[in-house]
Each structure stands twice: as structure tokens, then as C-alpha cells.
Amino acid sequence: MGDDSEWLKLPVDQKCEHKLWKARLNGYEEALKIFQKIRDEKSPEWSKFLGLIKKFVTDSNAVVQLKGLEAALVYVENAHVAGKTTGEVVSGVVSKVFNQPKAKAKELGIEICLMYIEIEKGETVQEELLKGLDNKNPKIIVACIETLRKALSEFGSKIILLKPIIKVLPKLFESRDKGVRDEAKLIAVEIYRWIRDVLRPPLQNINSVQLKELEEEWVKLPTGAPKPTRFLRSQQELQAKLEQQQSAGGDAEGGGDDGDEVPQIDAYELLEAVEILSKLPKDFYDKIEAKKWQERKEALEAVEVLVKNPKLEAGDYADLVKALKKVVGKDTNVMLVALAAKCLTGLAVGLRKKFGQYAGHVVPTILEKFKEKKPQVVQALQEAIDAIFLTTTLQNISEDVLAVMDNKNPTIKQQTSLFIARSFRHCTASTLPKSLLKPFCAGLLKHINDSAPEVRDAAFEALGTALKVVGEKAVNPFLVDVDKLKLDRIKECSEKVELVHGKKAGLAAEKKEFKPVPGRTASSGAAGDKDTKDISVPKPGPLKKAPATKAGGPPKKGKPSAPGGAGSAGNKNKKGLETKEIVEPELSIEVCEEKASAVLPTTCIQLLDSSNWKERLACMEEFQKAVELMDRTEMPCQALVRMLAKKPGWKETNFQVMQMKLHIVALIAQKGNFSKTSAQIVLDGLVDKIGDVKCGNNAKEAMTAIAEACMLPWTAEQVMSMAFSQKNPKNQSETLNWLSNAIKEFGFSGLNVKAFISNVKTALAATNPAVRTSAITLLGVMYLYVGPSLRMFFEDEKPALLSQIDAEFEKMQGQSPPAPTRGISKHSTSGTDEGEDGEEPDDGGNDVVDLLPRTEISDKITSELVSKIGDKNWKIRKEGLDEVAGIINEAKFIQPNIGELPTALKGRLNDSNKILVQQTLNILQQLAVAMGPNIKQHVKNLGIPIITVLGDSKNNVRAAALATVNAWAEQTGMKEWLEGEDLSEELKRENPFLRQELLGWLAEKLPTLRSTPTDLILCVPHLYSCLEDRNGDVRKKAQDALPFFMMHLGYEKMAKATGKLKPTSKDQVLAMLEKAKANMPAKPAAPAKPTSKPMGGSAPAKFQPASAPVEDSVSSTVELKPDPKKAKALGVSSKAKSAQGKKVPSKTSLKEDEDKSGPIFIVVPNGKEQRIKDEKGLKVLKWNFTTPRDEYIEQLKTQMSSCVAKWLQDEMFHSDFQHHNKALAVMVDHLESEKEGVIGCLDLILKWLTLRFFDTNTSVLMKALEYLKLLFTLLSEEEYHLTENEASSFIPYLILKVGEPKDVIRKDVRAILNRMCLVYPASKMFPFIMEGTKSKNSKQRAECLEELGCLVESYGMNVCQPTPGKALKEIAIHIGDRDNTVRNAALNTIVTVYNVHGDQVFKLIGTLSEKDMSMLEERIKRSAKRPSAAPVKQVEEKPQRAQSISSNANMLRKGPAEDMSSKLKIMYRTYRIQARSMSGHPEAAQMVRREFQLDLDEIENDNGTVQCEMPELVQHKLDDIFEPVLIPEPKIRAVSPHFDDMHSNTASTINFIISQVASGDISTSIQALTQIDEVLRQEDKAEAMSGHIDQFLIATFMQLRLIYNTHMADEKLEKDEIIKLYSCIIGNMISLFQIESLAREASTGVLKDLMHGLITLMLDSRIEDLEEGQQVIRSVNLLVVKVLEKSDQTNILSALLVLLQDSLLATASSPKFSELVMKCLWRMVRLLPDTINSINLDRILLDIHIFMKVFPKEKLKQCKSEFPIRTLKTLLHTLCKLKGPKILDHLTMIDNKNESELEAHLCRMMKHSMDQSGSKSDKETEKGASRIDEKSSKAKVNDFLAEIFKKIGSKENTKEGLAELYEYKKKYSDADIEPFLKNSSQFFQSYVERGLRVIEMEREGKGRIPTSTGISSQVEVTCVPAPTSTVSSIGNTNGEEVGPSVYLERLKILRQRCGLDNTKQDDRPPLTSLLSKPAVPTVASSTDMLHSKLSQLRESREQHQHSDLDSNQSHSSGTMTTSSSSTANIDDLKKRLERIKSSRK
């Protein structure tokens, strides 16, 4: 027991594996309990037992095993993972359970198997059970069969595949074990229950006794269709539904199921195919030609035996068929004819669809052989033709059958009609469209009038069958002219047909349920097949398929049975009308008179033929009134028009009467039910009058009305024939003109082009030029609808005429036909002919080409020609092909019968000589165009072999084959190609070329189809194998095609087809299917064809395709297809693009290889980065060689294979240079469309081009350079940055070419080098070119030196690498070169440097030999360009090279930079360049002197060696500019969340984290910012950031920019994320700018960009709209203030000035932006008094100087706002005030000070402040509060002023007073007029002030300044910007007292007078200068706050001109500041100021 207790403690799963049986038994029992308890099928508990279930069923102990089986059954039923165990468990059941003696065990085993089937694992179970049948133990075999039988009985034949079971049945019947045989019998009965007679053929060879027993059992079976009783899990819902339906009394579902199931099993499918070709007697072909009939008979008998095999293997039966056909057609022995026919029958039956390709050859021969009377021959022929019919479609053989119908032999006619009748029985309404029915009906209608009764009967039967198949509605339009008797007879036949079918499983059943064979056999028998036993079996196959396969065909050609009809009611209506109208009898004149007199006044009728024209006219007027009042139904149209035609009728001589008459005809036609009979009465007369000058228009109107009533096609035909039967040329030309207009108005629908064309040809031959012109105009209109194919009708006209026609067509090119405006409403209601004509376009339009006379060329295809084509000598074969091409060319359009040509050409498609293969393909292309749609019948025998050629290894042959296939498909549509197994057989071949071409072709064609034959499913298994093909291209093409297969077949079918794959493959394929399902495009919609507008809707659609540029556009009009197809292809392509990333080609060009339609460069993510890594890691060879070796070429080839289209790669690496040219041409074409791809493969493209530089062929080189020019232009537009890798593997090789002897090549190379500077820094180009100067080739040396000169000229000295000194020394060496051109180039280069940098050059070039030095000096003298000219030179040169540099923040585009910090540098560099180009004004960049330009290349190269060129400058000033250079090289390492553990390498870590700040991924950026913030917040760690500030700020504004441009626009991004990122950035910056030491590290350029970013952010309206947006903007405000206060004051001031300059220049920049920049500047101005000593004034003045140079005063004044000029002057004034005259010492950095506007401006300011020499009067600049010299008499002055003010006060003398005041003030500039103003109103004060300003402007001609410009007007006068009081007064424009600053200012002056100390400065300036700047500090303190209000105030001022209280009281308003104004309450004012401040905040 101890043992027991041991295992009892174990867990269940371990017990199950225990070695003790008891333990296992216990384990199984517990497991069973557990399994029954688990409710969740996905519970993890199940997985524990996954590996044990097999042990449950295979337990060695029988008792335990039983329990194990029970547990296993429950497991399989409930566990979701059970499916994984299927294979092992079922095999265990088979081997270990089925052999058990216990019945219970076997039952459980069977149950487990069935349960696995239920959980969708049927295939695996069946596989294991079939394996079990091979077991030696009969017990096991019996149990396996029993399990299969039960499974079939319960699940049905849909789930259990019968084919493999039936295959093993005969073997089971032969078993020695009786049990096995009995079980076999039972399963055979069960199978028979499901598939009935289909089972007979496979079992026909078993023992006859067994067969008899089976037959007995089979008879006992119930006849009803069986239904499954058990369902799969996935079907169990269906089962429930089914039960509901059955309970409701309908088992329609069952019927449907049955319909689905039965066709699944086809006896034919169950048979093994037999290969017979090799078994033919060796001498067969000789014997069959033998003279003796016995020998021929022997040969045929041998074949007969072979073809009795019910299923034959596919092969090339062409020769055999040809031999048999010959016997049938030519043999004189009728017995042999019958025998050969039987052989053909056998072949057709055994091959089925595979015989289709030969059908076209044989059918005409058999039909013609029906002339034989002998019944057995006739019967054999009938059997043969019926069997052949089933292998093809009626459409394919229709031409041949129709041709035979015209045979004179009555027997042939009879048999043909009977054959048609039998064929019709196999059709359905959809496979017998009107387009097919129409010609057959036409032929049969002739037969029903035949003299031979048997012919008539057969025709009646055929028509009756047609009537039965498609219904009366479809057939009646064709039976219009058939009299009633015959019509009844047809109907009678139709009923008979139904009876026959009804009794014997008729058509209805066939269509609905696809009933099995017996019915078919019988039905064929009824139609004249008696003894068809041997073909009865296979027949159902194709039959069952027929309706399905063909159902989808017609719609794609736009010929379904519906279009054109307005629905059934409409059709009936039309039909009725039509019959009535056609039949409308011609009334006699008496009847007409009677009818007319009933509706017309009697006087009217009497006066009709009066001799007095006035009476006739009056009569016409009455006639017209009567007609106008008549009701449509009562109007006797025919009677009325007869009255009009009554004498004098149309011979009426008076034009007025005639006009009325014609008008009445039009009225009658419009208002009445106007029939064709009526029309015929009048048309002749109308045509006669159409040329009449006075009546012509009325005649045309009448004709148009008739056309509307009787349809244009009929009217036009009548009119044309009448006009051309006349002699009058005027009538002819006017008729043609009328028709041209009518076509435009009515559309082209239904017109008989053929009839017109003959008339037009007559017209073109007319002698009268007007007729010819009209004819050509008509052709032009027709061209709009018919397209270019119209020209073919006139190919044989005279050249002169043809050129006129062409010119007319040219005019019409590109126009689309107008929408029809007439003939629409009528058609929908009473269109007489619509039943017929509505359909007409389907033929007329589509088959315009069919109207062309087609030549019969079969007689030219002689046997000699055919033997020539097959000759052993290729030259003779070529001759034969040339002849064929000649024949087709000559014939232009040919009939479909081309004799033996197809077989001959087919042989040439696999010719060993590829040139002949191509020639054959060209012939086949010609053939397609020449034969038109009729080429359909050759698809199987010629089209499919063309597809085989797609597997050719030669690219050009494949291209030709593809073009040919496309040309054919244009003509045939796709249905013929997709039907049958041919296409799937092709796809099965494991040829990668064939597979990729074919799949590509299908991917192009399938999306354009609305439906496809079901046979498409046959391709799917091969498609799946392609998905796993070894060849990458095949896999890709297969993936591309997948969605389009799915679009037609549906996901379910496709997924089901994966069942046969290996499990691993299946999973992969299913995953791809899922993906494709998501991307699956919708099926294209049917072309719109509104029934109410048959002409409007359909005609243009049909004819337009032709006008599209289709190659040899014959094809395009052949069917409606091309147009919708193109439209669809385009429609699909957008979806497909999203789905596949591949364009769906909608190419119509036939010549272009399909393969070439995809992208040529495939974008491989990170492909380039990986290649660079590989090269760095030395995994591949570095691209470095003197001449390319094979391994380099191979390596490049390998690298390209993944990202360049295969076909292009073949061209690129071809041995022939012409292919390289081709490749380059393609690359040029795709350059624009595939920018992404080009950039992704750029390194490879450049490497490939370097290989081309080593080619000897000039044309390739020229082409390559041409491509490079375009490429670099594109790259610069795309703002791409060349990576180091790309540059180093390309530039050295390009430079080799600069030494080419050909001038044109050198020029191109130089142009490319030029363009390269736009994508690669010139400074980096420099060393490469420098290297080129060391070449042995003197031309190369010279060109390189010249290029170096150009670089220096364009980009300055900084391009010289490694240092200017070293570079120039190297260049100077070449002055001593032995080659003259090199010497010259070296000298010119150094002269260029001299022109830029002056004498400094001599230091740099070091010591030269005397000779060289003298040459150089001489050259410099000659050039006579002094250094001062340099900037000008720059300005000229620069635009050519540097200006177009533009870049953007699309950083992802930039090449992978070498490391993080350099990545940032590059980003920064491109950012700066873009910022510069943003300005859009070239002069901006150029006005800045070179020394002060930010040299980006310098930054790029970490190079600080500037001092050598500019010794006169203070170096550290430039350091600021180059600060980003200091970024250290980071070592990339993982980001640690804290800095504590990073002391080892802090700098590199910081670098790395900073680089992540600019990341495109928001979370990465936030993480990096958080880490930096952590550092900044800890004082002890913050210093770690030192040295990284610029780098950090660059990263930050890059991120700001990224958010602004990318994230904000990205709708998918949560805006919360963005707000979060903004918060982090702003928080970080605020932390940074609180630490002053770090803040001061920010350099000018970076600060400029930072401010740019922040201001842009403040103005971003998108942010304001967000919830927390306002908060963000407030934080930014705070941050800006911090930046302004804390950063280095020089840098920030400089940055703001440059930013202002840029923003004013930028046209795109908003005025708000500039305004904010200026506000920042004002803030800086306010800080100046505290910071002035720390500012580098020289640099600030330099910036102001540059600003003034870019914006001279005139230009600034043109600005919309006066802010900029005021800002600048305020700044200058403040600086002047703070620095005094010393300010003029700070102009050191300005080169030509005397040129500078700045210096003049400062001087003026200083002058004003110094006053006139020695004068004691002080000049108060600001307020102009003048103080008069104490000596002058105050009384006098006051009286004088009082007088003046009196004048101003009086209305009359105002102006005079103002003028006097102005004169007075001018004379005494320091006079104080304030007392006079003080007591007056505010309005009066400003009035006086304004008046003075106006006078001042008039007198001094300064009208430029607008009167209300506030500050600036006063500035203009005094040249000193307004300080304090100016601005303070803005605060109180309402007339209150002025602010305290005024008093402070006065106080200072008074203190000064008393000698008290005002200043803290040590060196006190002279008194006068102090007086001149009285109140500067207050500018900074009290008033700048108010500047922000300035703009609003100004606007309000401008609105209220009348109360203009100018914010700046000008110098005449001094009274406000006199000492007497002490009444002002200063405290009160202070409070007010505080309020203003707070409101501003």
C-alpha cells in the first residue's frame, strides 16, 4: 500500500504517465472529471495534457486504455488546443485501438476520429485513416473503412473527400479478407448515395459479381438527395438555421447545399489521366496518309482504342487532331470519316477543356462534312461536334458556325441548325448574350424561309430552343419581321423543347440543381445523338461548369442581357410600339383626307392647292394653329403630312409658304406619334429643300424633329441615301452638315457607321469642294465617338485628302464627345427602335473595326508556307515568317480563318533562335490587331503558348511576349485566358521568370475585371507555392497578386485552398491572406449605363476608349472594355497602392513590358544604413579602386538585388552598352515619380554610375552625366544631404572625368560638381578636388584648380581645407607646372583668393620661387581687381551657386550622420541655411559682409582657424558665431535614467541625451528632457551642462520646429502628448535660463533661432484652440522674458536685430511676428541702462549697420508699419544717450564707416545734443519745450505769441496764424509756447501741433511721413528718438495731466543749472550734452511697458482722425511741461501707471 500512497500524492498529469497501470487508471479517471468540469474551452488547464492525450489512447493496458479513450474523447470535444494533437492521436487510434478485441474500444476510437472531424480537422483524420488501409491487420482496415463510412454518412461529401477513397476502392474489393470486402461494399453504397452514377466508371473493372451486388444495393437507395446530419463547429449555427427553415416548411437551404455539393465530385475528376501520345503506333502519321484505305483504317483503329480512355493527359495533340481532321474533311471512304469522327469524339471527351484550343480548326470541317447522307457518318459527326462543343464555348466557334450556315447544301444547313439547337440547350441566359444571339437568329431566320422542309424544321427547333433559354423578351427584337404562323411555330417548338427537357431533367433543373448525367444523355439523344454511351460520363463536367464559368463573362464586355433595356415593362412597351409603328400601313390619299378633315378647318384643306400664294400662306397659318392645339393621341400624323405633300407639295415655289410647311412638319413630328411611314412621306421633300438658302434651316429643324421621333440612326440612314441619290451638291453638303450637328445632339448610339462611310466616301470623291469639306467635318465629329480606328476606312484615299482628314482628326484630338441633349426623353417613353437600337451600340460601337472589310487569307497560308516556317534551316524559317508578316500587313484586317498558321506559329514560339521567337511574337501581335475580337478562338492554341514564352531567360523576349499577350487580351478580354486549366498549368511550371511575369500580368488585369471564371481557383495552389518560391521577385509578385485573386474568389475560398499546404506554409500563407484581406480592393463597378439615356449614357463610354492613346488603337474600340477598364485600373490603383505599396499599372502601351510598370527602386527601410554599417564593419569591400574589379561589380549587383527592379538590374549589368543607355533612360523617367526610392538607393546608384565612368563608350558617359545633373537638382530640391559614404565612393571618380579630352563632358562634370555643393558642403568637396590636382592628367589638374577657384569665390576662404594656408600652398605649387593651362588655372585661383582676401594671400601661399612670384604679381596687376571689389564679386557669383541652397527640417531625410552630435550639426546647418533662404531676398544674405556671415561650412568642420584671413578683427567676437562647433564627439551608450553613475563619461552621455531631445518620437524626447531637467534643477550638477548649451538649444528648437510642422499637423497624435512635450521643453528652458552662467553660453545664431521658435509658437493659433494652449502660451511669454534678461546681452541683442531683419525681409512672415520681435527689442532697450557696460557695442553697432544697409531709410519708410523705424531709432537714441560722443569710437567693426548710414545718423544725434557752438540756450529736443534766452525781452515775446494764438483761434485766420507760429518757432527754436497752450483744450493743443507738422512737411518736402505717425514724425525733424514723455503721454490721451517722468526730467535740468550732480559717471560730459539727454533712464523704466499698447492706439487714432490726439506731443506743444503745471497729482499718476502696467500683464 505504501506504493499506492506514493502515487496517490502525485498530480494528475504525472499519474497519467506513471508506470503502474493503477496509477494511470486513477489518473485518467481524475483527468476525465477535470475535463468535464472545465467550462472555458481556452482554459490553460487543457494545455497541461496536450502531450499526454496520445498516451491516453495508446495505453498498453486494455482496461486503462478504455478509460483513457473516454477522457480523450471529452478532451477533443472541449479543448481549444485539441486540434494540435490530431495527427498523433488518430494514428494512435488506428494502430492501437482499432485492433482491440473490445467493441467498446473500437466505438470510442471511431467517436474520437469523428470528433476530430467536427473540430475542423477532417483532412488530417482522413489522411491517417487512409494510411490505416495499408495496414496488414484486416481488423484495422475494416475499422478504418467503417470510420470513413460513418464520417461520410454524417458529415457528407463536402467534408469527406471522396476522390482518395474511390481511388483505393478497387483494391479493397480485391482483398482476401471477407470483412474488408463487405465493408468496402458498404462504403461503396454510401458513396453512391452521395454522388450517384459518377461512381460507376471507377468501379467498372471490379469483379462482375461484386458489381452486380452493388448494382442491386444501389437500386434500393432512396432517390432523394442526401443531407449531412452532423456539422462542423463552424457550421453548427447554419445547422440551427436550417432546422428553423425546415420547421417553417422550406428546405431551400438543403437544395442549395446539394447544388453546391454535387458538382464537387465529377467522375472525370476521379479518373487517372492516361498518356496516349507516346503509345501511338510509330508509323501512325505515315499510315494515316497511306494510299490504301485499310492502312488508314488500321491507324485510326489504333487511335480509337487509345482514346477510349475516359481521361487523357494533356499534351500537344495538334498533329493528331490535324491528321484526324484531314481524314474527316478529305477522305473519300465514309467509313473512315465516321471512324475519325469517333476518334475526335474520344479526344474531346478525354481532354475536355484542354481540347478547346483545337475546336476552332475542327468545327468547320465537321459541319461541312454533314453533306454526307449516311446515317452512321452523320451520327458519328454529330457525336463528335457535340463532344467538341463541350470543350469550348459557343462564342469561340460562332464565327465558323455562322460561316457554314450560308452553305448551299440543305443537309449541311439542317445539321448546322440542329447543332445550334443542341448547343443552345447547354447555354443559359448569361452565356447566350444578345451579341451572340443576334447573328445566330439572323442566320436561322433565313433558314426558316428555306425551300427545304428539313432545313426549316431544324431552324424552328433552334429558334425555339433559343426562345426557351433566354426568354421571349430577348429573342423578340430579332423576330420582328417573322409572320404570325412562323412565330407560332417557333413558340410551339419552344414548348416542345421544354417538354423534352422536363421529362428528362431539363434545362431548369440543369440550371438550378446541376442534375447528374442520365438526363443529359437523354437530352442529347433527343437532339439527334443516339448512341452516346461512351461520352455520357464526362459530359456533366463541363456542363456543370458552363453556366458558372460563363456567367461572369459577358458583363465585363459590357454586353449583359440587361443594358439598354429600361426594365421589363419598358421593353414590352417598346416592343409593342415598335411592332405597331413598323406595321403602320400606308394610308391612301382618300383616307388621309378624311382623317385630316376631321381635325383641320375645311377652308384649310380647300386652300391647300390654291394657285394664290397668299391663300396658301393663310391656309398654312391655320394648319399650324390647328396642329399646335391638337392632342398627341388625336393627331393623325400620316394624314397631316400627306396633306402637306399634296400638290404643289414640296415643289412649292413661294418660300414663305414653304418655310411654314417645313415648320409644321417639325411641329407634327414633335407633338404627335410620328411613325417611320409618315417620315418617309416627307423626308424626300426635306432633303430637297435642305440646300435652299431661305428654307434650309426650317428643313433641318424638321429633320431633327423627325430624328427625335423616329431615332437618329434610321432617319440619318434615310436622309443620307436620299441626299446621295440626288445630284444637288448643296443638298449633299448641307445634309452632311446637319448630320454632324445631329450626332453631337443625339449621341452616336446605334448609328450604322458602315452605311455612312460609303456615303462619306462618295462625298469625299465629289467635285464640289463644299461637299468634301462637309464630309471631312462629319468625319471629325464621328472621330470623337469612334476614335482613331475611323481612319482605317480611308487609308486608300489620295494623300492630299488624307492629310485634310488627318488635320480634322488632329483638331478633335483630346476632346471628349459632348453629352447628348436630344433624343433622351423620347427614348425612355416611346423610343420606337430602342429594343433593337438600344442594344445596337453594343455591336455598332464595340465592333467598329468589324465594319472594316476583312480579307480572307487562309488561301495564302499554303502548305509550302507552313513547311517553310517549320524548316530546319533558320533562314528559311525566317523567310516564312517574313512572308506571313507581309500577308498580314497587306491584308490589314483579316477573317478569323487562317488555316494551318496557328500550329506553324506555335512551333516557332519555342524556336531555338530567339530572334525568330521575337519575330513570331511580333507577328502574333499583328495578328491580334488584324483579326480583332475574333482572335478569341485562337487563345487556347496560340495565346497560352505565348504565355509559356514569358518564362524565357532573355529579358527582351519576355518583354515582347508580354506585349503580345497584352495585345491579345485587348482584343479578347480576359475570360478566355482564365477559363480552363491552361493558365494554372503555366503557373505550375517552376520557372521563376514565367511565374513573376505571369503573376505580374494577372495582378494588372484582375483588378479591372468585374467577374472571372471559376477556373481561377485552379491557379490558387500554384499562387501559394509562388508565395514561398526561392526567388524573391516571384514571392513579391505573388504577394502583389494575392489581393486581386481574393477580390474575385473571396477570402473563404482562398483560405480553404490552404488546406493542402504543409502546416508551416499554411500559417504563413494564412497570415498573408489576412493581410491581403485588409487590403483587398473592391470589385470595379459595372460601367454606368442608365436605361433612360441609352444614347447619352452609353455611347460616349463606348467610343471614348478609342480616343485614348492606345497603341494601334484599333483594339480600343473593339469592346466596351478598355474604357471602363482604364477607369477601373486607375480606381483600383489608389487602393492597391495603399494595399501593396505598388502601383497597379493601368498601362495601355502594349510595347512596354508589364514587369516594368512597377517601381524601379524598392524602398527598403534602413537598407542604406545597413549597407554603410556593413562597409564600416568591413563586412563588404570598401568602394575604393583604381579600376573596378569583378568582385566590386558582383558586390554591387548583390546589394542592388533587394532594392532595384530585377529587369532594370539586368539592363544595368548587361555586357552591352546599349542596355546601359536604356537603363539610364528609364532611371531618368522614374526620377521624379520615385524620389523616395532614388534617395533610398542613392549610394548604389552613385556607385553604379562610377562604374560607367570607366566605360569607354561616350554615349553612356554623356547619358550618365545627364542623369547626374537631374539627380543632383532633385536632391537639392528635396533638401537631401549627401552622406560621407556616398560622397567618398562617388566624388573621386567623378573628378577623374573632369580631365576628359571632350570639352562637352568636362563642362557637364563641372556643372555636376557645381550642383553637388548644394547637397554636400563645399568645404568637404574641397579636399576631393584638391586630390584631383595631383593627377597625371594635365587637363584634370587644370580643371580641378579652376573648380577650387570657383569654390573660394563662391563660398569664401573657409572652404579651404585643412587650413587655407596649407590649401593655398598646394595650389601655389602648380604655378610652376610644366603645362601652360595648369599654370594659368593655378594663377587664376590664387588671384581669385586675392580678390576675396587681399594681400593676406601672400602670407598664406608661403615662399614661391622668384619666377613664380613675379608671374603671380603680374597676374594680380593685370586682373586689377582690388579687394574692395570682393563683396560685389560675391554678390554676382553667389546666386549661381549658393543661393538655391535650401533645406528644411525633414531630418529623417538627411543621410545617417556619423554620430549624434554631428547629426545635430547637420540638422542645425540645414536649418540655418533654410532660415536664410526663407527671407527670399537675395540681397539680404549678400549685403552682409563675408567676415560677418555665419560660415556654415566652418561650423561643420569644427574649424576655428579664422585669424589668418582677418587679422584686423577681434577674434573672440567670431567665436560666438562658431560656438556650435564646440560640441564634443559623443560615444553612443544606453541612456541611464540618472546622471549619478555617469561620471566616467558625462559629456558623451549628455551629448547623447541632447541628441534625443530632437527625436521624432515624442516619448523619447520627453524622456530626454526629463533627464536634463533633473540635472538643471540640482545646482551641483547643473554645471555638467556647461559647454553643451548651444547643442541643447539647437536640439530644442529643432523639436519645436518638428512639433510645429509635423506633430501639430498629425491628426493621429493625441494633442495632450504635444502639450506635454511643450510643457517639458518650456520647463527645461526656464530652468536653464534661471542659471545665469549657463544662459550666457548661448550664442547669437542659436538665440536667434530659439527666439524664432518661441515667437512662432506664441503665434500658433492651433495651440490657442487646445484646452491647455493658453497656459502654454503664458509659459512661453515668461520664458521669453527670462531669455531676454539672462542670456548674454550682446548675443541676444544681436540675435533680435538679425531676426527682425529676416522677418521684415521674409514675404511669408506675418506682421505679428515682426511686431513681437520689436517688442522684445524694446524690452532690451529698457534693460540697456543696467547692461550697457557688459555689452559689446562694436558688435551691436555692426548689426545695426548691416540692418540699415539692408533697410535704408527709404525702404523702411515703405513698410506698412512705422514700428521698425521707430524701434531702430529708439535703440540708437538710447545708446547715444548712454554713451555720449564715445559711441562713435565703437564703429571699429564697420569697414567703410564713411559709407555707413549709421555713422551719419549718430553724428546728427550728437550734433543736436551738442547744440550750436557756445550758445547758452538749451535745445530741448524731446518736447521742444523751448526756453528763450534770458536776455530777450519776455514781454515782447508774450505779446507777439498772444497775437499769433488769437489768429489761430479765429476761424478766418487759422492758417495764417499757424504759419506765423511756425516761422516764429523756426526763428526762435527755444521759444516756450507752453503757457499759451496749457489752458486750452486737448483738442486745440493737438490741432496746433498737427498744423505745425503739416506746414513743416510742405515747406521741407517731407510729405513722406504720414501725419499720424506718432513718434516718427518728430524723430524726422529732430533726428533724436523720442524719450520718456513721448511715450508716457500715450497713457493719457484723454486730456489728463502728463506723467511724472516729465517732472523728473525738468528736475534734472534744474539741478544741472544749479551745478548739482546728476550722474554717476566719473567723466562727466559737458553740460550741453547732458541737457540734450535729460531723461533716458525713465525710458527704460516707466514707459516701455506701454509700448505694447502702441499699435492698438495707433489704429484707433487712424479711425478717429478728427479727434487725433497724437501720442507724441511734438515740439510745438511745450506748454504741457512748463513748471507751472505742478497741479498734477503725481501719486495719482503713479497709481494710474500701475494700473496700466497690470492690465498689460
Shape: extended
Low-confidence segments, given as residue ranges, are 250-263, 499-583, 825-847, 1088-1154, 1425-1461, 1475-1488, 1496-1500, 1502-1515, 1530-1544, 1812-1832, 1902-1937, 1959-1993, ...
Q: How would you state the average pLDDT, rounded?
A: 75
Beta-strand content = under 5%
Largest sheet: none
Q: State the secondary-structure class.
A: mainly alpha
Radius of gyration: 50 Å
Total count of helical runs of at least 4 residues: 111
CA(first)-CA(last) distance: 94 Å
Number of strands: 0
Q: Helix share of residues?
A: 55-70%
Could you explain the architecture of this structure?
The protein is an all-alpha fold. Helix 9 packs parallel to helix 11 (178-195). It is extended and about 150 Å long. About 19% of the residues have low confidence.
Question: What structural keywords apply?
Answer:
mainly alpha; 2041 residues; 65% helix
Please write out the topology:
Elements: H1 2-8, H2 12-16, H3 21-37, H4 44-48, H5 53-57, H6 62-78, H7 86-97, H8 103-132, H9 138-155, H10 162-173, H11 178-195, H12 200-203, H13 208-220, H14 236-247, H15 252-261, H16 267-270, H17 284-288, H18 293-307, H19 318-330, H20 334-351, H21 356-369, H22 375-389, H23 394-405, H24 410-425, H25 434-448, H26 453-470, H27 472-475, H28 484-503, H29 507-513, H30 517-526, H31 533-536, H32 540-551, H33 553-557, H34 568-583, H35 589-599, H36 602-607, H37 613-629, H38 637-645, H39 655-671, H40 676-689, H41 696-710, H42 712-725, H43 729-746, H44 753-764, H45 769-786, H46 799-812, H47 825-830, H48 834-838, H49 840-844, H50 863-869, H51 874-891, H52 901-908, H53 914-931, H54 939-949, H55 955-972, H56 975-978, H57 982-988, H58 992-1005, H59 1020-1027, H60 1032-1049, H61 1051-1056, H62 1063-1079, H63 1094-1107, H64 1122-1140, H65 1167-1176, H66 1190-1201, H67 1206-1212, H68 1217-1231, H69 1235-1240, H70 1242-1253, H71 1258-1277, H72 1284-1288, H73 1291-1296, H74 1303-1316, H75 1322-1332, H76 1338-1355, H77 1364-1373, H78 1380-1397, H79 1400-1404, H80 1410-1423, ...
Helix pairs in contact: 3-6, 6-8, 7-8, 8-9, 9-11, 10-11, 11-13, 18-20, 19-20, 19-21, 20-22, 21-22, 21-23, 22-24, 23-24, 23-25, 24-26, 25-26, 26-28, 35-38, 37-39, 38-39, 38-40, 39-41, 40-41, 40-42, 41-42, 41-43, 42-43, 42-44, 43-45, 44-45, 45-46, 45-63, 50-51, 51-53, 52-54, 53-55, 54-55, 58-60, ...
